[in-house]
Design a protein that fits this description.
CATH topology of the largest domain: Serine Threonine Protein Phosphatase 5, Tetratricopeptide repeat
Order of helices and strands: HEEEHEHHEEEHHHHHHH
Organism: Kibdelosporangium persicum
Distance between the termini: 73 Å
Pfam family, one: BTAD
Shape: elongated
Strand order of the largest sheet: 3-2-1-7
Strand content: 5-15%
Helix content: 55-70%
CATH class of the largest domain: Mainly Alpha
Keywords: Transcription, Transcription regulation
Protein name: Transcriptional regulator
Oligomer: single chain
Number of helices: 11
Number of domains: 2
InterPro entries: AfsR-DnrI-RedD_regulator, BTAD, TPR-like_helical_dom_sf, WH-like_DNA-bd_sf
Radius of gyration: 24 Å
Length: 273
Amino acid sequence: MTGLAERVFSTATQETAEQEARIIRLPTAAGQDLAAEPTGRATARVNMLGGFQLLVNGELVQVSLTGQRLLAVVACRPGPAVRSQVAHVLWPDTTSVRAHANLRTAVYRLERSCPGMLEATSSYLRLAPGITVDLDQTRELATRILATAGPLDPELVKDALEANLYDDLLPEWDEDWLCEHQSRYRQLRLSCLETLSQRLAESGHHGAAVHAALAAVHADSLRDSAHETLIRACLTQGNRHEAQTYFASYQRIFRTELGVEPAATIGQLLRTG
C-alpha cells in the first residue's frame, strides 16, 4: 500500500470509527433499550434456527449478508463478544488492521439500516438488552428437558410442544467459525428430542412422543438411539405394526448406507415389547 493510499485508508477508518461512536448509544436513563422507538419500546428478535431472520415488532427486517454474519457471531456467543475476535472470525484472510476497519464499517452500516441492534464499546460487542434469540431460548429449554427426571410438568410440556426443536442452526451457512456451534447445538437438539419423546410417552402424550422421535430420525437417519426411541414410542402407543414398519426402514437404511446389520438390541424390542 502506497503512502497516499495508507493516509486515505487511515482517514476513512477514523471517520467510520467516529461515525460509529456517535451512532451506537448506551441505554438511556429513562430505561429505553437500544431497540426502543420514539413512541415506545420496540421488540426485536434474532432467529437462527432454520435460517436467519431479524424481526422488529413482529415484522421481518431485511439485513445485508455482512449484517447477518455480524449479528450471528455476536448472538452465538454466551456473553459480550471481543471485537478483535469478531473481526478475525469474520475476515480471517485479511490483515488485523483491515479486519478491524471492516468491522467498524459493518457496525456502522448495521446501525444505519437496523438501528439499536448492538451495544458497542472499543473492546466489546453485544446484542442490545431486550433482544431475544431463538437459539438461546431453545438451548435453555433443551437443558431443562434433559435435566428433568420422570414425567414432564404440564408447563414444560407446553413449552416443548411450541418450541422449534426441528431445525438446525443456520443450516445453509458454510462458515468455519460456525461449524462448532452447529455441531454442538445439533447434538443437544437430538439428545433433547430423544429424551422429550421418552418423557412425553411417560406423561401419556403418545402422539407427541412419536412426533418428537420421528424428528430425531429425520435429522439423523443413521443414529441408532433415534430409531430405538421411535420404536419404543410406537410400542408404548400400542402400535406394533408401525413399530415393525419403522424397524424395517431402519434395517434397510443401515444395510444400504453402511452395509451392516442394525443393532440387535432394537430388534429385541419388537420381540419383548
